[in-house]
Design goal:
The complex is a heterodimer of chains A (221) and B (242).
Chain A: H1 5-15, H2 26-31, H3 36-65, H4 75-78, H5 89-115, H6 117-123, H7 127-130, H8 134-143, H9 156-184, H10 196-210
Helix pairs in contact in A: 1-9, 3-5, 3-8, 3-9, 5-6, 8-9, 9-10
Chain B: H1 2-8, H2 10-13, H3 24-29, H4 34-58, H5 67-89, H6 92-98, H7 109-119, H8 124-153, E1 156-157, E2 160-161, E3 165-167, E4 170-173, H9 180-183, H10 185-214, H11 220-224, H12 231-241
Helix pairs in contact in B: 1-8, 4-5, 4-7, 4-8, 5-7, 7-8, 8-10
The chains are: A mainly alpha (221), B mainly alpha (242).
Chain lengths: 221, 242
């Protein structure tokens, strides 16, 4: 179950792009892609939050939710607290992930406002929207419970990297989509297809193009 | 009467997918077959109804500043329950197909949106009806999309093959090769785009019909005089020039 950085990067950005192949983060993909500047801001904010959230959720998965194995220890078990047979994965996964993501987003917002005001001004308005961006929660699940090896999940450093790559894949898709939509806004689209419907169809053609990356370098995802 | 309206308003006029454009991720991801679509809609509706009811019951005890966090925790609790129930009662194939989209109900904007926009301001009975109405709307949207995608993309309906059609020994309709791409990712985007367009087109037509009915009859005198004689010569001059 060893994977390398290059395999993860190509897999998450091109072959199974979060938006175009895995259907995650579609609300911002269609909601914030009317202007390129907005799309880039949203994309960068997602890259940032997704990397941190992936690290945090991978830590939680391996050290709080899963039972102790030779590869990792459950901290609750180490403290002498009871841990059920299958760990706490089924009952606490959803609630712990969403809470951690919500707290992280709030925290990142506060830290950015204090330390890097310029970056905060650029990303600030997109940050609160990210809590309910299913791409962040989605990649957390894909890194842990839905990974090929759910008994261990991805190790923390690889999960962080995969979160970063997923964010980059999202950014790439947003950038392409916003370019297309800026052109579409000036074209004579039939009235019923203005805005959202034609954006969906363009997204479909983009997804079709991205299917060409399937099995690139023999990497199967 | 008011309660009934809370329900009947929702499925078409406030359809969560085609009018409000919310909850798009599961809408695209799980609609490869009718069974998956119905299972997804049932799971989401169960969470929506329970969350709406509970949030409206406790809405007076939740401090305003942390209301979103409280809603998320309540929703996450119900999502976990639904996930456990789904594992117990739904067939393995459906659980496989829905995969991470069951826990992802927690970040479905339909549910948080209804909590914030409706349940936090209305009584339990109204909120229950609102949840049911929106849930039926979600179900209708998923059924419409997955019907098209299953029939065209897999050539089946509720898992039964549609072609070839045979009566005794004679073949009425030969076996038709399905359009595989409709069942894959690009097909999802394109089918939903086309259905969205259809929905807009019907909405536009209804609005135009309503406007035409609302316009008062023009008095005869006004109709007999052409309104803007100035615009005409310019247009014809341009036409002649070209």
């Amino acid at each position: 179950m060893n994977v390398g950085y290059v395999e993860l990067a190509i897999g998450s950005i091109l072959i199974s792009n979060l938006v175009l192949a895995k259907f995650l983060g579609l609300c911002p993909f269609f909601g914030v892609s009317r202007r390129t500047s907005d799309a880039v801001g949203m994309g960068l904010a997602v890259v940032f939050v997704m990397s941190i959230a992936s690290a945090a959720t991978a830590l939680i998965y391996r050290h709080l939710l899963l039972p102790t194995t030779p590869e990792h220890t459950n901290l609750l078990g180490a403290l002498g607290l009871p841990v059920p047979e299958g760990g706490y994965v089924l009952i606490l996964k959803t609630i712990s992930y969403i809470l951690v993501i919500a707290v992280l987003v709030q925290f990142v917002e506060m830290v950015l406002r204090k330390t890097v005001p310029t970056l905060y001004r650029a990303l600030g308005i997109y940050l609160p929207l990210i809590t309910t961006n299913c791409a962040v929660m989605g990649i957390a699940l894909l890194n842990t419970e839905a990974w090929r090896d759910p008994a261990n999940g991805l190790p923390v450093h690889l999960a962080t990297f995969n979160g970063f790559c997923g964010g980059v894949g999202f950014l790439v898709a947003m950038l392409l989509m916003s370019g297309i939509r800026e052109r579409l806004a000036e074209l004579p689209v039939p009235k019923a297809f203005k805005d959202l419907p034609i954006a969906f169809i363009s997204g479909g053609l983009m997804a079709l193009a991205f299917m060409g990356f399937a099995n690139l370098f023999g990497i199967a995802v | 009467m008011g309660l009934l309206k809370d329900f009947t308003d929702k499925p078409i006029k406030h359809n969560p997918v085609f009018v409000l454009a919310l909850g798009l991720c599961p809408t695209l991801a799980v609609t490869t077959s009718l069974k998956n679509g119905v299972a997804m809609a049932a799971a989401a509706t169960a969470v929506l109804v329970c969350a709406n009811l509970l949030i409206s019951l406790v809405r007076r005890f939740i401090p305003n500043q942390i209301r979103i966090a409280c809603y998320i925790v309540i929703i996450a609790g119900f999502v976990t329950m639904v996930e456990i129930v789904m594992r117990a009662i739904a067939p393995a194939a459906i659980n496989e197909a829905l995969g991470i989209f069951i826990p992802l109900i927690v970040v479905n904007c339909i549910i948080l949106g209804r909590a914030e926009a409706f349940a936090s301001r209305h009584g339990p009975a109204s909120s229950l009806m609102d949840g049911l109405g929106i849930g039926v709307g979600f179900l209708l949207a998923l059924v419409a999309i997955s019907l098209v995608r299953e029939v065209l993309g897999a050539g089946t309906l509720w898992g039964y093959r549609l072609t070839p059609i045979r009566v005794g020994d004679t073949t009425l309709v030969p076996e038709v090769e399905p359009i595989a791409v409709i069942g894959m990712a690009p097909g999802a985007f394109i089918v939903i785009g086309l259905l969205f367009g259809l929905f807009h087109w019907m909405g536009n037509r209804r609005r135009e019909a309503a406007r035409a009915a609302a316009v008062p009859a023009v008095p005869r005198v006004a109709r007999d005089f052409p309104k803007k004689p100035v615009g005409k010569p310019t247009a014809s001059a341009e036409g002649a020039g070209a």
